[in-house]
Design a protein that fits this description.
This protein is of the alpha+beta class. The strands form 6 sheets. A 9-stranded antiparallel β-sheet has the order 1-3-2-15-14-13-12-11-10, sandwiched between helices. β14 and β15 form a beta hairpin. α2 crosses α10. The longest helix is centred in the first third of the chain and has 15 residues.
Length: 570
């Protein structure tokens, strides 16, 4: 069922740049090397700046098996862009052009009606500090291309959503991370100046700070230096955010981002420093363990406040942070959806532990199969489970990809071994049984194929591919769907936090339930039971968890992972 791609053996290329006055801590270097070796990301680049200047550490390649990265390689920085938007707002405040308490409405066309509540209007400051009451994403974001979800979202659609939206809570009362609010703020800043958001960033931030590699629109040199984004080992499209650029559209390099962080620390002298200081000032403490300024998030650290922001797009994860008291700043950029925020936090606060990086069981199994055949792969998996279970991880998607690689090449025995292992490792995944069924069909094992397709449907009644395959084999398999009342579905409505800056928004329309994850299109959730739901757009399931009759959290089952998400209070 799952589309395959060529399985590459990752060749690690490491370049540690400049004559270094400082080495990365050994645990950080070891962790980065393990992540690259085990396929977390094609590359990870780390920069540190302090009174002694910038230091660059580059590991890996722009593409799998491609050219080495360096401090000039280009990455999408995602939501770190929000701090650029905050700096522009702070600059306008200090120049007397705007006030943090100005209603956003006064900067928009008269045809647009910003939502209000209890006679209160949303201010520019509240757009920036995530207390506007606006949702993470607009409800009318329905991308034609989910791999580039914001590309066709127009200003007209944004205006239409704002004019028809009803705020669920009092303005300023709670923190809710909102790409919509930040994108709207960037748009307002452009309207006020009569320029595009990108022109404002270039003219007011990147040119004054000497950041020629920081833009939204790629120039030829940036294209040449681009580190391509990856998700689940597959190369993915770059994102375009024409209407919500202020939320996450900027591309940059390690070289430039260290200059930006250095300027925020005052290590690089510029006229922007007062505006940057204003953006760093705490505005509220409503974000759990974090306080929030204009976009920046602020956490306690042993040596002072850790001021930071992370970012993520379809194929990149990034981090920028600093501690004013120590005068140290850190930037971490990766070209995959496996983040490395822990590296940034650990460098700024050693009390934050690095994640445990496990070795790839997929690589061991593949090596055994290619050396001695399918049975050797099964034996290798059995040995890993018995003697090295805590040291290795088996990635469901990578394993599925390997299976399809063998199946397409005509090595059906190897494909069967790989898919069989995946069903043992992930017995609750519909997709692995679907894939195993396909290999069994190819091998002429009809009865076994039928059983696996039925198992796939049992786990995910929305697997239309399994229904079609069963029909091809002359088997009719009815799927029963329970009917849930609107009252039951309403208890699930809300925002569920999967990770810092990444939520799932659950909404209801009559007796149909929908979800929308950060930066992605809306999807429908189909009931399997009163608390279990499945998706049809991807192989995934959602289970709502209750305690004393109240919904506390949900668990997303996808790609072999169980991802808990706590329901945020309104």
């Amino acid at each position: 069922m799952k589309l395959f791609h060529t399985f590459f053996l990752l060749v690690i290329s490491i370049s540690i740049l400049t004559a270094q006055k400082r080495q990365l801590p050994e645990d950080v270097t070891a962790s980065i090397l393990e992540r690259i070796e085990n396929g977390h990301s094609p590359s990870i680049v780390v920069g540190i700046i302090d009174k002694d200047g910038p230091q660059y550490y580059a590991f890996g390649t722009k593409t799998i098996g491609g050219e080495p990265v360096d401090e000039h390689s280009i990455y999408e920085i995602g939501s770190i862009s929000k701090t650029f938007t905050a700096t522009l707002l702070a600059q306008n405040i200090l120049n007397g052009k705007m006030k943090a308490d100005d209603p956003a409405q006064q900067y928009l066309p008269k045809s647009v009606t910003m939502p209000t509540r209890n006679g209160r209007q949303i201010t520019l400051g509240e757009l920036s500090d995530h207390t506007s009451g606006l949702p993470r994403l607009p409800g009318n974001l329905n991308p034609a291309d989910p791999s580039n979800p914001y590309a066709d979202y127009t200003v007209e659609l944004m205006y239409a959503f704002l004019s028809g939206y009803q705020l669920p809570r009092d303005i300023g009362s709670e923190y809710e991370y909102s790409n919509l609010a930040q994108g709207l703020l960037g748009h307002i800043l452009g309207l006020q100046a009569g320029k595009s958001y990108e022109e404002l960033v270039i003219n007011n931030i990147t040119k004054p700070l000497g950041m020629p590699e920081t833009r939204i629109t790629f120039d030829e040199q940036m294209k040449k230096n681009l580190a391509m984004g990856y998700s689940q080992g597959m190369q993915v499209s770059n994102w375009d955010l024409p209407s919500l650029a202020g939320a996450g559209a900027i591309r940059s390099s390690l070289h430039d981002m260290l200059r930006y962080v250095g300027a925020n620390l005052g290590l690089i002298k510029s006229d922007l420093y007062p505006a940057m200081q204003l953006a760093q000032q705490v505005r509220h403490d409503k974000a759990g363990n974090n306080r929030v300024g204009l976009a920046w998030h602020i956490a306690n650290g042993p040596d002072g406040d850790v001021i930071s922001h992370s970012g993520g797009t379809g194929g990149y994860r990034t981090f920028a942070g600093f501690v004013r008291e120590t005068g140290m700043g850190v930037v971490v950029l990766t070209n995959s959806t496996k983040g490395a925020d822990d590296i940034g936090y650990h460098l700024l606060n050693p009390d934050v532990n690095l994640i445990k990086v496990k070795k790839s069981a997929v690589a061991v199994i593949r090596k055994a199969i290619e050396a001695e055949g399918a049975e050797a792969g099964l034996n290798a998996w059995a040995a890993l489970k018995k003697d090295h279970a805590d040291d290795y991880e088996l990635d469901e998607d990578q394993m599925n990809t390997l299976g399809y690689t063998y199946l397409t090449a005509g090595n059906t025995k190897a494909a069967l071994a790989v898919f069989r292992i995946n069903t043992e490792a992930y017995p609750n995944s519909s997709n692995v049984f679907d894939s195993y069924g396909e290999a069994l069909m190819a091998d002429g094992q009809k009865e076994a194929a039928v059983e696996n397709y039925k198992k796939s449907l049992e786990l995910n009644p929305g697997n239309d591919n399994a229904v079609q395959m069963l029909e091809k084999m002359g088997v009719t398999h009815a799927v029963e769907m329970p009917e849930l009342s609107a009252d039951v579905l309403e208890t699930y409505v809300g925002t569920y936090n999967l990770a810092p800056g990444f939520d799932i928004e659950i909404t209801r329309e009559e007796t149909r339930l929908y979800g929308q994850a950060t930066g992605q299109g809306r999807f429908e959730l189909f009931p399997k039971s009163e608390t279990e739901f499945y998706l049809k757009v991807v192989a995934a399931q959602v289970v709502f968890n209750t305690k004393d009759g109240q919904v506390e959290s949900l668990t997303l089952f996808q790609g072999g992972q169980e991802l808990p998400a706590k329901k945020m209070e309104k």
